[in-house]
Amino acid sequence: MTAFYKTSGNATDYEETAGFSAIEIVQLVLYFAIILVGLVGNTMIVVTLLGRQTRRVGEYLILNLAITDFATCAISIPLDLAERLSGGFPFGSILCYMIYPFQTVLMAVSVITLLSMSLERHRVVMTPMRPKVLPRTAKFVIGVSWLIPSLVIIPYALVLRLEGKQCMEKWPEDWYVKVFTLTNFAIFYVVPLTVIASSYVRAGRKIRKELDRLEHVVDSHRSQVQYTKKRTLQKMRITKVFIVAVSAFLVCMLPTHASWIWHDFGHGWDSKYFQDVLIFSNILMYANSASNPFIFGSLRKFSLARLFCCCRKHSGELYQLECIYELRVGSTTLHVGREMAVKGYNKASKLLERTNTNRLKCANV
Fold first, then answer.
1. Are strands 333-342 and 351-357 parallel, antiparallel or unpaired?
2. How far is CA 173 from CA 159, 167, 183, 314, in A?
3. Is the domain defined by 22-310 classed in CATH 1.20.1070.10?
4. Which residue ranges make up each domain of the chain?
């Protein structure tokens, strides 16, 4: 519900504040940090997965989530910054109908993608002998994840109006906005996260039972037992990654939902602390888009010391700085190489090569 915090507040809030408070300054600084980290991290995920000749269903879903997070960092947060710095909505009446709904759609797509991830992981763990889900099915699910929120958000877009410097919600009756708030909270938070939790609990129990059973297997076929145990541990590791991603989303999004439920049902708009709570919830909400690259992958062979060393190389020497981003849910690795030549007449060269190592696995993990 990214758009909610824009239009439900008082239109006079900006006009009554001549400058920025300390918490607002912190908000702006953190916004810039989230944009930088989120753009770089999600770009690495996108480049990693697009570099593969073949992708599994889970990787398609991770790619969709990364694109959503990238759009959040590249579009949603900068628009919020522009509105905050200008003291109003500076984009005109037409964009008033489009920007806030689009931001809400990004949040909804993330939820549906996480739900799809949990169902796919549940299928892999609970019914490993069933045929694999084809890539075209994953593409269809991704299309649906964008279509459904786009349709659901239409009523919200129709009640937006530009009044003065503010893009405001103009509901026919007060109870309309309460129904809308609860509906979005149920559809895009409570229901999907309940299903997600149930799926991962069942999958976790199944994996734990398999590991316990392997511990008591007679050691007559040691190599086969070790192979099965290794695959089961890999399933557990990948499942934990997805669980961490869902947990981060749950924690980061709950304050935003709670803030607007308080606003609509508990007269939160009348509290002097509401704006501070809202700023905190917005920071946490956007931080989720920058956290997923750290959850789904990690950097390898990167050192700031090596980065600084390249600046101290003598003339005529060539130094290579290599940064590798590796996904935790597969064998895909992104290699980003930077060769820097320091000569009397030549400055540091640009990125020279990007090599993607593709290793295909037949196992449905």
1. antiparallel
2. 11, 18, 16, 72
3. yes
4. 22-310, 325-356
